[in-house]
């Protein structure tokens, strides 16, 4: 036995199917009309040709802009690499200079300490 609820659901399903068919038919009719307007008339073909020309120009412009952007990015990367190399060599040079200065100062301190020890030893020997 079919309940009233099931009958209502079947009726809704049939209605939805009919609505879907009508919707697809209207969409198809609209698409066909647009296609005929663009391809079937002289003015439509002119519009389509203008649209194609516009798309081609846009594509060329995008390619040109992209190439220019890549070129600029490459230049910036090269400049950054050169600057980093310069900074690295400056740091290396300064660190080597600092090491040499520290070595000279250490040797000077050791020499001064030796002289002071020798002088103190001499004084001590003289007094003894």
In words, what does this structure look like?
The protein is mainly alpha-helical. The protein has a domain at 9-96. Helices cover 95% and strands 0% of the residues. It contains 2 helices and no strands. Helix 1 (4-39) crosses helix 2.
List keywords for this structure.
95% helix, mainly alpha, 128 residues, elongated
Helix count equals 2
| General form | elongated
SSE class: mainly alpha
Report low-confidence residues grouped into runs of 5 or more: none
The Cα radius of gyration reads 46 Å
Helix content: over 70%
Q: What amount of the residues lies in strands? A: under 5%
Order of helices and strands: HH
Task: Give the topology, please.
Elements: H1 4-39, H2 42-127
Helix pairs in contact: 1-2
Summarize the structure.
The chain is an all-alpha fold and 128 residues long.
């Amino acid at each position: 036995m079919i309940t009233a609820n099931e009958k209502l659901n079947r009726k809704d399903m049939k209605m939805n199917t009919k609505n879907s068919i009508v919707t697809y038919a209207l969409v198809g009719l609209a698409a066909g009309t647009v296609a005929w307007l663009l391809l079937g008339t002289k003015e439509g073909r002119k519009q389509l040709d203008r649209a194609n020309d516009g798309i081609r120009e846009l594509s060329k412009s995008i390619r040109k802009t992209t190439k220019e952007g890549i070129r600029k990015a490459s230049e910036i990367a090269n400049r950054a690499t050169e600057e980093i190399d310069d900074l690295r060599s400056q740091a290396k040079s300064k660190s080597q200079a600092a090491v040499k200065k520290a070595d000279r100062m250490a040797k000077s301190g050791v020499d001064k300490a030796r002289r002071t020890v020798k002088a103190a030893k001499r004084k001590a020997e003289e007094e003894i």
